[in-house]
Amino acid sequence: MTDARPAAEASVAGETWFQAPELTRVLELLNRDGGETRIAGGAVRNSLMGLPVHDVDLATTLLPADVTARAEEEGIKAVPTGIEHGTVTLVANGAVFEVTTLRRDVETDGRRAVVAFSDDWQEDANRRDLSINGLYADRHGRVIDLVDGLKDIESGTVRFIGDASQRIAEDYLRILRFFRFFALYGRFRPDADGLRACARGKDGLKTLSAERVWSEMKKLLAAPDPGRALLWMRQVGVLTDILPETEKWGIDTVPALVEAGRALGWKPDAMLRLAAIVPPDAERLQALAGRLRLSKSEAAFLQDYAAAPAIGESLAGTALDRILYRHGRQGVVTRLRIALANAWVDLEAPPAAREKMMALQALLKRAEAFEKPQFPLNGADLIATGMSAGPKLGETLSALEQIWVEKNFHPTKADLLERLKTL
Prior knowledge:
By secondary structure, the protein is α+β, with helices and mostly antiparallel strands. The protein has helices at about 20-30, 40-50, 65-75, 120-125, 150-155, 165-170, 175-185, 190-200, 210-220, 225-235, 240, 255-265, 270-275, 280-290, 295-305, 315-325, 330-345, 350-370, 380-385, 390-405, 415-420, and strands spanning about 5-10, 35-40, 55-60, 75-80, 85-90, 95-100, 105-110, 115, 135, 140-145. The protein has four domains: about 1-155, Beta Polymerase, domain 2; about 165-240, cca-adding enzyme, domain 2, CATH 1.10.3090.10; about 250-370, no CATH class; about 380-420, no CATH class. It contains 21 helices and ten strands. Helix 7 (about 175-185) runs antiparallel to helix 10, helix 15 (about 295-305) packs across helix 17 (about 330-345) and helix 16 (about 315-325) packs across helix 17.
């Protein structure tokens, strides 16, 4: 068994999450009687970067059956969530920990791996994807670095462990993970070896399920600032392979969305950013949604965006209300946010540009607060006047609704029935 080289200067022992009694209990349970269990991956990385820790994953020399047996003896719930890959989920007093036995790859095909269990920490670290994800912390909180991840955290370098092309060939989704982690944690520019390996291996993305590709891409778009990552993805041809719709449309709006969003308090929105980098063409967006297996709500978001008209800053508020009534709020708000982001300027901008920005901001505020009014007539009302059911009744009702909308929803039911006499 290869032992670790402790990095004495790095520790997570003082972190609140590390001191949680549930974690202490699980670590004590899995580190006794010859077992060795360490915290692995994201919790260690985020702590060292001063970022929030949401999930705590554990790596262990114990076999899954041993993990389960020990947990059940202590009254801790054990769920075999990924037993074929050595993962057991423990639930201790509501706290959830994924515990995975050390592994080595026996066979990989770029999509999935056949693994064998191991007790070799170096071997387990070497099979992970990126150096910043390959760190461990022992039960005392001391950080153990077998892949030079500490220096990469310090420099903001996102780098594959070992040979980049080999890591990618083991799972082509790592190409997208490379860019996503660069968006989240990288500084300056991506690792050159990693970029070259992504360019060489990008055809392998076609072998992956659409669901895996979109899931990873959506996480990337939801990063606080995915702009630089998208730029490098375009440079090496990865973005065009996944989203060919962006090729002649551009990604320049994303940095503007990030800047405007920070100033206006918008949460990072993957679908808004996707809409900003694809053309508002209903047919092409329908094809995109099918190709990437978007959910029904995600596909509807893109169709609403395509159906909504472009909106200029000179549009009157009442005219905006009519557009909102006909097209719905979601697509119009998307259009307005993109327009506002593109118009976003600093405090020293020319007055005309500032006025445009302020006008769009007012329209957006109105759109976000819009509640669709209820048309006061229905078919039964017209039948009560003596009209017969049929196509003519539907046409008349639509004509009255059009009048009501054009009059800014003011005519009452009585007004509309009076108008019926003139139709």
